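Exam review. A common question shows you a sequence with its structure tokens and asks you to describe the fold in words. Practice with the pair below. Do the first one on your own.
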Amino acid sequence: MTVLLSGILFSNNIKFIYAEEIEPLSTERLYINFVFNSYIDIEFKAKSENVTSIKSEITSIVQLLNALTDNFNTTISPYEEYANVFDINNSFSDVLIDDILFDIFTLASEINIYTNEYYNIGIGKIIDNYKNLIANRFQYEINDSEYQNAKQKSLEVDITETKYVLFEEDNKKYISLKSDTLLDLGSIAKGYAVDEIKKILSKYEVTDYFIDGGSSSMAIGNYTRTENGYASLGLSSPYLFNKNYKNYPQIAEYANITIRNKSIATSNYGQQYGYYKNNIVSHIISPKTKEPVNNMQSVTLIGDDACLLDAFSTAIYTMTLEEALVFSKKILQDYNIETLILDNNLRVHHEFSSDSNYNLVVNVTEISENQFSNWFKNNFFYIIIVVIIIVMICLYLKDFFKSRKSKSIVSNNDDDNESETPGEDI
């Protein structure tokens, strides 16, 4: 135990104002794998007496949320009393749900309206159509018949009206699906979990923390591992330049940012993609076109509410660049959410508040250099062949024009000789 003494010196005597006992904080880490098809990794500093409770409560809420939002399996012990997304998707009657799922569905409905339906959790069938396609042809060329089949099945899915209804009856909460809708909470569940973790840390007065939700959803407190309490993050975006389908796209940090006491979320195609006619087929689907979108390289949002950031970043990614820039101004004004967009020309667009408390360093030049370097290495053999062909053509043309010039000189000499021939005397 450490005792902090604070005092003032009077005439060589120390007058103690107070004496406070401060317990040293314990640096802890909690890693939870196989949740939300990803992981949750948390570093924090807390009083030793609270560490066990903090880890237990965080683990419980994360596992509960993972079970409730799972759309592939029914809930299992100890959560079998709860209906989850899988159960809801496989029932066309009213389903009793708990407060957490009701809250998530309510929030998703509000976001759907706010984003002009660019955010839609009711497109699970369409998502599955293309995810299955990508899973079968991960990083390889998708043939035309496969893509057209997935596209046709997706276009037949009706999402023109609200596909689920939430209601309360006798102090119980229900959800009812319409037609054959499949719900998918993958674009909001992780952010919701990050917010719940922040609540638990706040309850135990933990201010020093770093929450990593699978690299796409994060929250940073007062990060005391650095001198100024700011955490430095690299914002990475995959982009395609070479056409070697057996390799990952190059991953480059297009910007670095130092933040604290903020949440941050990113949407891009990451490593869930395939190729169709040399174009990226993303796992992110537009509710408007019912097809994969790749209108920009990456979207990163910074704010206080990780759940909103998670959902809004997905919605923005499905917009056109022009719509995304307009929407960025809107959420800055309404929610104080700040936006970073890397477009397909590797330009960075940002919408920040005037009192932002972090630094942004854009590395676009480095990306361009890396891109050229990788292209050069991947095409070196072909470049050499082209250079050899050009050299041979140049040598041929040189000899050709030299030969033409020689013939021209000979011809001129012949003409001169003829003009100098003496005429006959008459």
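Now try the second one, then compare your answer with the model answer below.
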Amino acid sequence: MKSKIQFLVYTFSAIFIILFVIVGCSDEDSEPTRSPIVMTLPVSEITETSAKSGGNVTDNGGAQVNSKGLVWCKNSDPSLESHLGIVEEGPGEGTFTSSMTGLEPHVNYYVRAYANNNAGTGYGDAISFTTLESLFQLEGFVKNSIGSGIEGATVYLVGNNQLTNARSSDLNPAFENTEKSPSASTDENGYFNFHEVSNGQYEIVVEAEEYFSASKEVSVSDMDAEVNIELEALELPQVTGLSISLNDDLIHVSWNALTNPTLLGYNHYEKHFFWHEGEWTRNQFHITPKYTAWKKTNDQLITTNTTQYNSPTYNGFVKSKVSGVNIDGVETPENESTIVRTKELPSKSKTLATFGLTSYSGAIDIPQTHHEIALHIGYFYQKLDGDVIPFLFDHNGTWAIQVSEDGSSWDTIAEHAMAQGSFVPSGPYGHTITILLNQYKGQTIYFKTSPSGGFHDIVFNHQVRQYSLDGSGF
């Protein structure tokens, strides 16, 4: 019995000694647990609203890593306690990669990796990165007033000097001087576009040949934008190569065609002087026909480079001019470069009677006709010995022209006077007066004059003439 008790004492003693040795050795060799060591990986794949980063847990701190991941914010010290975003990647050591989403465009962020165990949380270095700016498309059309697209217009985008990636629909390079602006060219439909345009206020400036420049403000705000611009056409140049000719009873006018892309058509104008009804401008040297005002001969725009029209009458002169009309309906105004051509119309007249200042005309039979009947009164200084100086009238003088239907009762149809000091032209192009006599058609009439005062050296020529208006014979 004693031996059995001794055996148990020795056994428990041995176990106690072994346990003491083991515990003592363990306390001497083990280290205290600490936070894990983790490195933050570089940021990559940055967009307007996302980016990638990660970490590498290189030391677990002597204990199991319970969780790891990323934290980020806008200040330089993101943590589990203070952050804008967090992504967890679970327990364990080693390298991990995480995506950060829900970011704001064009904002500077700080991100760092973390890992924790029972002892605490370890952080990597904070890395700064900036999300990309949101970029949009700015597009539109450049058109004229009739809605047609203008090809080849240059469109400038003014307002953001950082836009170096703008490009046009027809692959024109961006404007090299980005301090001014990028540019694009319109295609055959007048379309243009700028890609990668950031938010902001801009001014679109458009230039095109044959058009006035134009500009328009546009705002890009978190979405694609569209802007359409209408250009006003420049005035067309003056028509060249104008010519006028007669073809039977038609007046034919032609000119060099304008090649401007903004040409809509032409207007043709004429003004005329007709002997049987025309007025005259006079000075001391000569007499010239007084033309009517310019009158357009076409009801619709002329779309070729030629036109023809009937002369309203014969026996006189016509003047002709042509003006281009652009797509805005603006007609090129007349200036010193405008070509005006004059054409004398064929003479279709017949003298019925002639009488002088004091002579009696005798009976004049006025035919019943559709032609015009007119009395022409001309007077001029009789040039003597080559003297071309106008005659200076040296006293007062008047005369009247009277008409009668029976040779006994007279009505005055014209009265004229020259005061002392008046000039009288030299030669046969002196003052002329025209009086229509259509009311006497089919009648026999008489003329006489009643002068008062001396008219020495002045020649008077009175003619009653019949004029064809349509080219028909007498």
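Model answer, second protein: Confidence is low (pLDDT under 50) at residues 21-29, 161-180, 384-391. The chain is about 5% helix and 45% strand. Full marks require stating both points clearly.
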